[in-house]
Amino acid sequence: MNCTVERIETNVVKLEITVPAEKFRDAIKKSYSKNVNRFNVPGFRKGKAPMAIIEKMYGESVFYEDAINIVCEETYPQAIKENNISPVDYPEIDIVEIGKEVDFKYTAKVVVKPEVKLGDYKNIEAKEIEYPVTEEDVEVQLNAMREKSARIINKEDGEVAEGDIAVIDFEGFIDGVAFEGGKGENYDLKIGSNTFIPGFEAQIIGAKIGETVDVDVTFPEDYHAEELKGKPALFKVTVKGIKVKELPALDDEFAKDASEFDTLEELKSDIRKKQEESNKARAKRDFEDEVVKKAVESSEVEIPEVMIEKEIEFMVRDLDYRLRYQGLTVEKYVELMGITMDTIKNDFKEVAANKVKTNLVLEAIAKAENITVSEEDVEKRAEEIANIYGSKDVEKVKETILRTERPIIEEELVNNKVIEFLVNNSKIVA
Q1: Contact 270, 259 (CB under 8 A)
Q2: Where in the numbering of this chain does the PPIase FKBP-type domain appear (predicted)?
């Protein structure tokens, strides 16, 4: 095989690959073996007709298509490896010369990974951020613990108030006609949660158990149901019951029940300590992010559009994956939000472009500084991931991860080392 490489655009190269005629004839034979059963030739049992007879009946090129695929699938990867080319998309193949008695010649035009012009990444200046723990921070976590220990009790009398849970039956009408999806029974509505149409919850405040009230609202212009957008509606709402959340008192007894500590002060001290550790980790991440951001901003790279498009597609798949945990799909989400898939992709574009550039810059720094990871590092990370899955057969899961996700793990570990390098060579400023 012979290959010449020509750069025809900034991030596009064209390879002209010449394959000896003998190798192409071997590929034709493989194509014949693969496809012979497709042909019915008089005088021969199906699958037994000689190649020459089939070619005479259907033309010499009858086996060319698969032969071309066989040759290209073997020689193209070899050509990009030998010429240190890093494609970011599938190649565009064009046949230059073909035949049994001539060398097979084709071109492969492909978008390649762009070159990065690095800035001064060894002397980055960034501010060190501190996140002090306040009494309010401790109170927020204490209140969250109280919420978990709260009891829901029935309110025997009185009226619906802010913060109560009203148990309601309701039915909605537009121009006196009930509409689909506007009816519910024994629905628990937290007053103040703003989960219903704006203005709905406020009109229930003051109602007593057994009382029916008229609630007048107007559906928002951006409401997900097209037929209800901007429409005024009347809801008949009957209060079936009122529930209130009873929070435990903040005292030593609460600390004993909700934690391993005997006193409230010990519990507060532990919360503060853990929050300080969390804040330090957050400050460290923010400092790292700032250093990386400045390294990226000081670098120059012309990113091929296809790389951004692929990152956007990855982000859409990730969104779909997360939505499925909520019982939705990205298609259903688009429908409910009244937007299009193009809207989502456009919203993702800036983030995707920045992520691609960041990865390219980190990769270029790793190459410039000869930053690599060992096989031991990769296996250790694969084992950590396998343990996260909680499988009994950690070794088997680890092997699968190493087989299918090795490039992702290697990129993650190298990037982490590059970020550590950048931080170690940065300067903290006031």
Answers
A1: yes
A2: 163-223
